Structures are given as C-alpha cells and as structure tokens.
Amino acid sequence: MNLKQELQQLNDRLDKCRRKLDAAEKRGDHAVILQFKQEINAVTKQIAHVKNQQTRLLNKKGTDVKSLPFSRTLTKAEQADMGKLKKSVKGLVVVHPMTALGREMGLTQVTGFAPKAF
C-alpha cells in the first residue's frame, strides 16, 4: 500500500472515531469516551508520521531531480507533443509546477530536467 492510500485510510478511521466519540459524549458513556480519545490520539500520531514520510520522499525526489546537470523550461510546442520530446531525450524528467514535486521545488513553469542538454 502506498503512502497516499495509507493516509486516506487513517483519515477515514480518524473521522469514524470522532463521530463515534460525539455519539458517546451525547450518551454520557465515559469508558467509551476515554477509549475513542486514546484511539484518536494514536491515529493522529500515525497521520503525522505518514505525512512526515511523504515529505521526506518528496524532498529526496526533488533533490535527485535537481541534481541532473541540465534543466530548462519547456515551450508550449514541446508541452503539446510530450511523447515526441521524451523519445528524443533519454532520461528526461518533466516537472509541472502544480504537482507536489513542482510545489516542493518552487517551480513556476513546466520544466524539463535531463542528464544532457536538449
């Protein structure tokens, strides 16, 4: 299971626990309230851990891409025919500024990173 799916499942579990906690508070069931508060704390810690893992992986990938010796912004024509461009340039990595990696790297335009000039 990848981190995105795991994070989604943890968020779903957290939401379910919160709803059950609200119902238990309305009933006044103190044992169940305590149980769900503990579970909410545990799930919150797990969510923080998974988000930290995602950030670390994103930073690592951004560092790997930035370490490629050549980079430049792509023209609209190149963006329109991305398949042809990727076939002609071996090892090309295209990063869009609206993706998580692009936001992490602080890009403002679609940029191509490659081992050789293209």
Quick summary of this structure?
This is YibL family ribosome-associated protein. This protein has helices spanning 3-27, 30-66, 76-80, 82-88, 100-105, and strands at 70-73, 93-95, 111-114.
Explain this structure.
With 118 residues, the chain is mainly alpha-helical. It has two domains: 1-67; 68-118, Ribosomal Protein S8, Chain: A, domain 1, CATH 3.30.1370.150. The chain is 68% helix and 9% strand. It has five helices and three strands, in the order H-H-E-H-H-E-H-E. It has helices at 3-27, 30-66, 76-80, 82-88, 100-105; strands at 70-73, 93-95, 111-114. It has a three-stranded antiparallel sheet with strand order 1-3-2, with no helix packed on it. Helix 1 packs antiparallel against helix 2 (30-66). The radius of gyration is 22 Å and the shape is elongated.
- How many domains would you count in the coordinates? 2
Query: From the alpha-carbon coordinates, what is the Rg to the nearest angstrom?
Result: 22 Å
Query: How many DSSP H or I helices?
Result: 5
Q: Structural class of the secondary structure composition?
A: mainly alpha
H/E series, N to C? Answer: HHEHHEHE
Model regions low in confidence, pLDDT < 50 over at least 5 residues: none
| Strand count | 3
What separation lies between the terminal Cα atoms?
A: 36 Å
Overall average pLDDT: 93
Q: For the largest beta sheet, what order do the strands appear in spatially?
A: 1-3-2
Strand content: 5-15%
Report on the biggest sheet. 3 strands, antiparallel
Shape: elongated
Helix content percent band: 55-70%
Organism: Shewanella algidipiscicola
Keywords: Coiled coil
Coiled coil: 7-53
Protein name: YibL family ribosome-associated protein
